[in-house]
Specification:
This protein is α/β, with parallel strands linked by helices. It is 43% helix and 11% strand. The chain has 2 domains: 5-16 and 97-230, Rossmann fold (3-Layer(aba) Sandwich), CATH 3.40.50.1000; 18-91, Putative phosphatase, domain 2 (DNA polymerase, domain 1, Orthogonal Bundle), CATH 1.10.150.240. A 6-stranded parallel beta sheet has the order 3-2-1-4-5-6. Helix 1 crosses helix 4 (72-91), helix 3 (53-64) crosses helix 4 and helix 4 (72-91) packs parallel to helix 6 (123-133). The site of xylulose-1,5-bisphosphate (XBP) has 17 residues, from helix 1.
Length: 235
């Protein structure tokens, strides 16, 4: 086997975006629209059970407030406002990449290993994160950026990884995924991908028994470690 592609998850993996990024953007959007919702750090940790910002807002009103205050259309509008605030946070440089992410990207490029992204977040959020932290051309480092509503079923469904593999025209056994959450791990595994998990405050106690390896410090992950997992260099 030869390592042909590394598929990165984004939120929680490439950067710690949830607590001080997405969560803050949601609260700014609620404020802007005069909605008396406020998601604390602790509550948001519970809401992260549902992937997708629009789905998460609906989950909050039905499962926590036990009310259907907002229609799907109103949720969509509110989500667009949240995305605007989130991108402003990214462009202000407030959300750095995790230590070690840039190093792995540079190593993979030097070794002609293809890079791709498989994420639930909105596509423009990915571009803004990459531009803010790597530069204007950062998007071109990734052969495929599979994100958000491009698939119907979000993580833990495998759709976003299957879509990325199809776009890459690669087999799962020649690739590896890097994830931070149980939902992301399940999504990658169901797509047939060996997966490494890097944890963060919100996900560190989740079930990662099926991960190949678990690293709280992303900088422990390098191309040699990934090649060994794939079985490259084994005669
Ligand atoms: C994490 C998600 C996303 C973000 C919010 O994505 O579940 O929904 O929390 O982004 P991943 P949006 O870990 O797959 O990168 O509001 O744009 O959905
Ligand atoms: Mg994630």
């Amino acid at each position: 086997m030869k390592l042909k592609c590394i598929l990165f998850d984004v939120d929680g993996t490439m950067a710690d975006t949830e607590r001080d990024g997405h969560r803050v953007a949601f609260n700014l959007a609620f404020q802007e629209k005069g909605i008396d919702w406020h998601w604390s750090e602790e509550l948001y940790g519970q809401l992260l059970k549902v992937t997708g910002g629009k789905e998460r807002m609906d989950y909050y009103q039905t499962d926590f407030l036990k009310q259907n205050i907002l229609t799907n259309e109103e949720i969509k509008d509110l989500h667009a406002i949240k995305t605007k605030h989130y991108i402003q946070l990214l462009e202000s440089g407030k959300i750095p990449l995790r230590t070690g992410v840039k190093k792995l990207i540079n190593q993979a490029k030097a070794e002609n290993i293809t890079l791709a992204i498989s994420t639930t977040t909105t596509p423009i959020n990915v571009i803004a994160l990459l531009k803010a932290n790597i530069g204007k051309q950062a998007q071109s480092l990734f052969k495929v950026i599979a994100a958000g509503d491009i698939v119907k079923h979000k993580k833990p469904a495998p759709d976003i990884y299957l879509y990325a593999l199809e776009q890459l025209q690669l087999n799962a056994e020649d690739c590896i995924a890097i994830e931070d959450s149980e939902a992301g791990l399940q999504s990658a595994l169901q797509a047939g991908l060996k997966t490494i998990v890097t944890t963060n405050e919100y996900t560190k106690n989740q079930d990662f028994t099926q991960a190949q390896q678990i690293h709280s410090d992303f900088s422990q992950i390098d191309t040699q470690l990934l090649k060994n997992i794939i079985g490259e260099n084994h005669v």
